[in-house]
Amino acid sequence: MTDTALTRRRSENSHQKTWHIYFGDVHVGTIGTRAGVPKDVDQWGWHLGFYPGTEPGAHQSGSAETYPAARDEFERAWLQLEPTLTEENYEAWRRSRDWHAWKYRIWGNGCRMPTQNSSGWSTCFCGEQIPIACETHIYSAHRGIGA
């Protein structure tokens, strides 16, 4: 991956200040206000890690008094985690993102999954006939559908 910068996107949750943190197109973590905590404790929290792609034991999280402090802590943790990751880690997350987006689009278009038919075949929303083992179709014809 050539882009090494982290970027943030504001969450669509209007009830809480939350930013999703991305490395390229991979959602690697979150920084946001903590819900339900007393006013005299850290109001900002952060979480670093993505699944699939990193094992749950590699995930890190913390809290801070302010957003800039939470961002600094997140970035320090990222600098430790990022060198341990390979393209396969990011690709595992992308494949999961695309598979789930494809599945919800299948359902949203009223199509049946191949597993819902006794023949083990179905028709994708794009018109292609697909078998139960349809991952190749999803990752070639619908690459990036969840981006």
UniProtKB/TrEMBL annotation:
Top-level lineage group? Bacteria
- Protein name (record): Uncharacterized protein
Q: Which organism is it from?
A: Bradyrhizobium japonicum
